[in-house]
Design brief:
By secondary structure, the chain is an alpha+beta fold. The chain has a seven-stranded mixed sheet with strand order 8-10-7-11-9-12-13, sandwiched between helices. A six-stranded mixed sheet has the order 1-2-3-6-4-5, with helices on one face. Pfam families: AIRS, AIRS_C. It comes from Clostridium chromiireducens.
Length: 328
Amino acid sequence: MKEGKLDFDDLRRIILNNKSVRRDEIVVRNDVGEDCSIIDFGNYEGIFSTDPITGANENVGKLAVHINCNDIASSGGEPIGILVTILAPVNSTLQEINKVMNEIDEEAAKINVEIIGGHTEVTSAVNKMVISVTVIGKNLKGKSVKTAGAKLGDDIIVTKTLALEGTYILINDYEEKLKKILSAEEIELGKSLINKLSVLEEGKIGGEFGVNSMHDITEGGLLGGLFEVAMASNTGFKISKDRIPILDVTRKICEEFQIDPLRLISSGSMLITSENGEELVKQLKDKGIEASIIGKICDRDGILIDNGNEIKVEPPKRDELFNIRVEK
């Protein structure tokens, strides 16, 4: 099999074929596109999510904290605690494991999240360090936002710029190669993007605003995220390529590697659908968060408008990060 997330249809079949128990307390169950599961705990809802870091080599501790806590943000909730599993290859050192845990502790402290448990082991089952984090969050009962909540006619909004995480990873992993096309300033800009990967603030704003749907854009990039929202909500989407915010440094990197920035891992950007996108964008910008309306939720299909042409978008098979095959 190829690296990356499973094909959407394959994943959905696996999920649907393995649901033997359905408890009344479960408000939101696992499904394609849903960032979190939500459990009714009386006056509060517990929000749960888990993800590994597999595509990056640098600052994996920082990435592990933010990509998981971002899932809680996509539900409009507050992350409280994380459980960390570290699988280290046999050639690891204690110093390397301690460095990763220090990164996790530092980033968690910045957003007031406690490390509450986990597991660490050295194993020949992996050839590089794998970090998996489970995050626990909370929200008031009935206030959580689902991926599956998008409605016909909703504005589609994205925050910041696309492919922030992908740009950061590629600059760190292929810096020497990219020095041929990027200036020193552009390389430093790309490395600094790790400080823009949290979407907790936009998640809070979106939850308070009353948006219909939120989704953290991760593997598969913008188009992957849109397909997940549309599949979960039984809708389609129509977006305009010229409205999609992408940094010049990201465009240059994607051209060099011949990959599509719209299909590149994009933690740091929140995908939101709302009946009143203009007002939401204004509120986000008032809080210092850039946001753009890029299209509308429609009844079926995924359409990308490029230079006036309507192109039907095929579901992404895997993230572009896994399509790069060059010597570092």
